[in-house]
Amino acid sequence: MPTFTAGDGTRLAYHLRGAGEPLAVLPGGPLRASAYFGDLGGLTAYRRLALLDLRGTGDSAVPADPATYRCDRMVEDVEVWRAHMGLEHMDLLAHSAGAALAMLYAARHPHRIRRLLLITPNPSALGLRGTPGDRLAAARLRAGEPWFPEAFPAFRAWLAGEADFDDVFLPFFYGRWDDTARAHADAEPAQTNEEAGERYFAEGAFAPDTTRAALAALTAPVLVYAGGLDGSPRPDLAHRAARAFPNAEVAVQPGAGHYPWLDDPEAFVSRTVDFLAR
């Protein structure tokens, strides 16, 4: 397991899987260890994944200053990581909340990005965010599934702030609620630094107008990848996020939730490999 030292002295770890050209990968959560990616649906057959454990997660150390968990404070972690790996330019894939960090990195270091893949991204860095209404609209698409009658009222109550998170509505985050999805969901609590996650989106993390202006200098191709059943982002929000980039395209994977590489690995790998190979 390779490690490097961030600018503030925090030791950060990353994991290498597969073979081929490197593909740097940023996890979501926020602040979930990179183990949840697995092999990204078999993408390791085509690229060598470098999966970063963000500070305070997985095999990376806890920083001395908890304020450094804020998303914008970790941009330079990514830049130090790139230099450590010896990459003049890099292909960067980021998932969910990790996409907000990737957007800030691309805005600050546009010349370091060769290709950018934003998988079911949280676009808070652009001043955009999925709403409870978006999530409920996506959830209603699942009305024919056997777990829906119990899950939907609990999900609606949680989104309204009337109840705590309940495992009963975890199926809404997956396109297929099968044994693979259950195992993936069961692993989440042990992989996530919840205290750090609360700091990730802290006040001051984002300056959307500044970020949007800086992204005008990003000439690299960008793929914004959405799941057809995902509530955050829904496909329309993914299209709105894509408009912030000069050279972006949107892919929507039918039947996929927030983890499209689990719902249809073949479709996910085919689409991402096609983008990376251009």
Q: Summary?
A:
By secondary structure, the chain is α/β, with parallel strands linked by helices.
Descriptors:
8-stranded mixed β-sheet, 278 residues, 10 helices, alpha/beta, 17% strand, Rossmann fold
What is the name of the CATH superfamily? Alpha/Beta hydrolase fold, catalytic domain
Corresponding CATH architecture? 3-Layer(aba) Sandwich
Category by helix and strand content: alpha/beta
Number of helices: 10
Biggest beta sheet summary:
8 strands, mixed
Rounded to an integer in angstroms, the radius of gyration calculated over CA atoms is 18 Å
Which spans of ≥5 residues are poorly predicted at pLDDT below 50?
A: none
What do the pLDDT scores average to? 97
- The dominant shape is globular
- By DSSP, the count of extended strands is 8
- Overall structural domain count: 1
Q: CATH topology, anyone?
A: Rossmann fold
Helix/strand order, N-terminal first: EEEEHEHEHHHHHEHEHH
Distance between the termini: 30 Å
User: Which bin fits the share of residues in helices?
Assistant: 25-40%
| Strand portion | 15-25%
CATH C-level category: Alpha Beta
**Going across the major beta sheet, what is the strand order?**
1-2-4-3-5-6-7-8
Could you describe the 3D structure shown?
The chain is an alpha/beta fold and 278 residues long. It has a single domain (3-131, 192-277), classed as Alpha/Beta hydrolase fold, catalytic domain (Rossmann fold, 3-Layer(aba) Sandwich). The protein contains 10 helices and 8 strands. The chain has helices spanning 75-85, 97-108, 132-140, 148-159, 179-191, 194-200, 208-215, 235-242, 260-263, 265-277; strands at residues 3-5, 11-17, 22-26, 48-53, 90-95, 113-119, 222-227, 248-253. An 8-stranded mixed beta sheet has the order 1-2-4-3-5-6-7-8, sandwiched between helices. Helix 1 (75-85) packs across helix 2. It is globular, with a radius of gyration of 18 Å.
